[in-house]
């Protein structure tokens, strides 16, 4: 593809993504839905502008997925994992086991392929809690017990989901033997343990132990002072002379861990996720959210556009029955499994928590894209997972509002 065509396609894709995002946000729906719809319009379904030979678009999409998962990891503090209560843990575990087991056997019946069924089941495990958080905030429930359980469970859910993805990705590369499964689990555990334990210690040392205090100066600006009480030492990262040194080092770590994850046979985005995890406690120190936001604004839309462009709705009549079945499975397994995990806190809380854990969103879509890129699932199965992710994402706000209203009515 010539340079002029490449730049024109980037322009059209980015513009379409942002227009779709704006429309969805005005409709109080997740912005990613508009970006996926833009991809469907630009893909083979309508205009066919984004074709299989647009390899540069896959690169942009991969970068978008990398920074998206880094951001997800950055929002998952390791310190918060230690504070997660028994209820949130039960919700997360049952919210992973139930969809995976039921999804696997249903998918085996539908697709008759073990590896394909495992990837579909893994996609059903995912939870996109950002959508739920927005709905709860709109309802004035973001500080309630239910919201705390959902957010706490989502932290554990993210980790368990990544472990399942790691396991399934590794199995897909070899034979389904006990030895290979043990090796894959061992690789996953070692990678996670080394990155989280050693990585967090290195980051802690490199960034320095310090508290941040802010004082307003005479002219209204903010002066930030770093101190550690009785001890004081400079950050190793701050000693580097190049501009934005901490940001540069973090980029190196992101790409390094992504490459390392691929090298040991894991999904590259798992490395990006854990890069975010080990830097989660220092994101305020180096203003990581503000610095990575421009990258996400630019690159992440290409990921969702690429997702939409791979959906061929021309043959949707063949896959819609499968999508409907798996959508029902996706909703019921999370609703039932997660509700059972929170039942000790009362039926009302259990139902709200179960409803809040339903959306698959971008996490399920990422898993589908990995399966497609590895050649372990076909285009039709990929399209089905995308449709399930879209359906659960759109349905969740209505489900939560219905449950809340029903419980409020019962109280009267």
What does this structure look like?
The chain is globular. The chain has about 400 residues and is an all-alpha fold. It has helices at about 5-25, 30-40, 55-75, 80, 85-110, 115-125, 130-140, 145-170, 180-205, 245-265, 270-280, 290-310, 315-340, 345-355, 360-375, 380-410; strands at about 210-215, 220-225. The chain has one domain: Na+/H+ antiporter like fold (Up-down Bundle), CATH 1.20.1530. The protein has a two-stranded antiparallel sheet. The N and C termini lie far apart (about 65 Å). The protein is built from 16 helices and 2 strands.
CATH class: Mainly Alpha
Supply the number of helical segments: 16
- Strand adjacency order, main sheet: 1-2
* Shape designation: globular
Mind summarizing the main beta sheet?
A: 2 strands, antiparallel
Measured on Cα atoms, how large is the radius of gyration? 22 Å
Task: Please tell me the total number of domains.
Answer: 1
Q: Segments where pLDDT lies below 50 for 5+ residues?
A: 210-233
Mean pLDDT across all amino acids: 83
- According to CATH, what is the topology? Na+/H+ antiporter like fold
Q: In which range does the helix fraction lie?
A: over 70%
Strand content: under 5%
The tally of beta strands, per DSSP, is 2
Determine the structural class based on helices, strands and strand pairing.
mainly alpha
Distance between the termini: 65 Å
Secondary-structure element order, as H and E? HHHHHHHHHEEHHHHHHH
């Amino acid at each position: 593809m010539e340079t002029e065509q490449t730049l024109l396609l980037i322009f059209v894709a980015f513009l379409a993504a942002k227009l779709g995002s704006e429309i969805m946000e005005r409709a109080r729906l997740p912005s990613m839905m508009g970006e996926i719809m833009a991809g469907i319009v630009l893909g083979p379904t309508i205009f066919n502008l984004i074709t299989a030979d647009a390899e540069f678009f896959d690169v942009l999409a991969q970068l978008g997925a990398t920074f998206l998962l880094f951001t997800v990891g950055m929002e998952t503090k390791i310190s918060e994992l230690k504070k997660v209560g028994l209820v949130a843990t039960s919700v997360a575990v049952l919210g992973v086991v139930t969809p995976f087991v039921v999804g696997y056997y249903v998918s085996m019946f539908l697709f008759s392929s073990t590896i394909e069924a495992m990837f579909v089941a893994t996609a059903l495990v995912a939870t996109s809690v950002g959508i739920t958080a927005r709905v709860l905030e709109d309802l004035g429930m973001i500080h309630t017990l239910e919201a705390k359980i959902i957010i706490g469970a989502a932290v554990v859910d993210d980790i368990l989901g990544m472990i399942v993805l790691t396991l399934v990705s590794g199995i897909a590369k070899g034979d389904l033997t006990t030895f290979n499964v043990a090796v894959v689990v061992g690789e996953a555990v070692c990678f996670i343990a080394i990155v989280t334990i050693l990585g967090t210690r290195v980051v802690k040392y490199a960034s320095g132990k310090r508290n941040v205090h802010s004082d307003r100066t005479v002219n209204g600006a903010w002066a930030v002072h770093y101190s550690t009480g009785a001890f004081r030492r400079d950050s190793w990262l701050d000693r580097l002379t190049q501009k934005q040194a901490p940001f540069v080092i973090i980029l190196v770590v992101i790409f390094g861990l992504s490459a390392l994850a691929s090298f040991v046979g894991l999904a590259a985005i798992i490395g990006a996720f854990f890069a975010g995890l080990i830097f989660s406690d220092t994101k305020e120190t180096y203003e990581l959210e503000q610095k990575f936001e421009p990258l996400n604004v630019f690159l992440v839309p290409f990921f969702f556009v690429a997702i939409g462009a791979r959906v061929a709705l021309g043959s949707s009549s063949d896959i819609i029955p499968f999508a409907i079945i798996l959508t029902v499975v996706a909703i019921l397994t999370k609703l039932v499994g997660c509700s059972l995990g929170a039942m000790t806190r009362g039926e009302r809380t259990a139902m709200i928590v179960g409803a809040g854990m339903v959306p698959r969103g971008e996490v399920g879509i990422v898993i589908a894209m990995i399966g497609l890129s590895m050649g372990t699932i076909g285009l039709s199965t990929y399209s089905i997972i995308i449709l399930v992710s879209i359906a659960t994402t759109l349905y969740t706000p209505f489900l939560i509002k219905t449950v809340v209203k029903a419980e409020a009515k019962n109280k009267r």
